[in-house]
Amino acid sequence: MGTLFGTDGIRGRVNQYPMTPEMALRIGKTAAVFFRDKTSHKHPKIVIGRDTRLSGGMIESALVSGLCSQGADTYLADVLPTPGVAHLTTHLAADAGIVVSASHNPFYDNGIKFFNSRGFKLSDALENDMELWILDDHKKPPVIEDKAIGKIFPVSDAGMIYSNFLLNALPPDIKTRIGGMKIVLDCSNGATSTIAPNLFSRLGVEVIPLSTSPDGININDACGSQYPETLAKKVLASGSDIGFAFDGDGDRLIAVDETGNILTGDQLIAIFARFYHQHHLMENQTVVTTVMSNMGLGKALSDMQVTHLKTTVGDRYVMEQMVASGAHLGGEDSGHIIFLDAHTTGDGILAALQFLRVLVSENTVASQLANVMTVFPQILMNVTVNAKPAISDIKGLPEAITIIEKQLGDTGRVLIRYSGTQPMCRIMVEASTKTEATHFCGQLTEIIKIQIGT
Fold first, then answer.
1. Which helix (H) or strand (E) element contains residue 120?
2. pTM of structure
3. The two domains 5-159 and 378-452 share their CATH topology (first three levels equal)
4. Measured by CB atoms within 10 angstroms of the end CB, which terminus of the chain is less buried, N or C?
5. Which of 55, 65, 101, 103 is catalytic?
């Protein structure tokens, strides 16, 4: 990562560097030049989609101006989930896809992230190359002749193209067996607010919608995958079979079973892993997650005799390792779940459909599926920080970690890292009991607050 790109593109508070119209214009110009050098097209084809936050149109317009000024043709998908943009990029044989979104962040943040022509997120090396172009004042894009500027094309059927792609990922017999189920969908007032309810209704599902009325400000506001408690209450009150919660840009999934229990990304991965394993759909018996995965997932995969590979935090690092290892299944506890045999990136709606596939194939209820994994008590605390020194340089922290790790032994672990998209330090402790995990996490959090907290 450089100074501009984080773990998932460029992100920040709107109207503050780097998330300003001026920077978006500059990023658009650079992207046009960058992708023009990688295509045989006279005019690079760039797909752009966004989520529902208030600033989306502003940032998108600046990007489009920059792209067109350098000869790129832009294809506007309007509001579309991030994985929908990835699919549309390949569907239209475009040279790149751009998403204007800050994912699960509040409305006042926004971001810009890129997909290559194959629908994969850019590697660190490519992002670093682009960052050098963007930040180098001496690398000004050339002036394009007036007849060579790019055009703007609206993609009015983008949502239908993406929906059909998702439905085609389900076996025909599964589609007919899903009909009649009652499902609660929490769309986080984000990019899935229209597409998800319509798609599940097409399958004959009784949909109970939550947070499907975006106003530009209420995206991720006490709803969606970050706040599944409301979904759990609704599942119980409505007697639904299952509940699904997406985040603002639709690349995450958290589920709630029929008893109101919340199923995290790790639990969902364990469920999918067992299904893939039992039905011989896992060619090399490998699952890829990040270092943040719960220890219970590792034990469940070990019991299945499935190889468990771990990467640094970030779904694109998971994807890169999946491609390198030949794994078909991977993801993060946060709800990014990747089915490489179906898509090139994490997809919340696709994961929900795959969960229904497992549910009807096994002819059981969601709570029974969750028994595949015992979740170790895990406490995660966040501290807003004014700087990001090396963890080992924070006064008193290394010593405290050593003491706590000795007390935990083989029954727990400590993981401390900085967010790649926010000025935040994340402290995670797993232990044999929730009380112990909370106690140790609190100790470490207090040290960080004193030393570098705002």
1. none
2. 0.90
3. no
4. C
5. 103
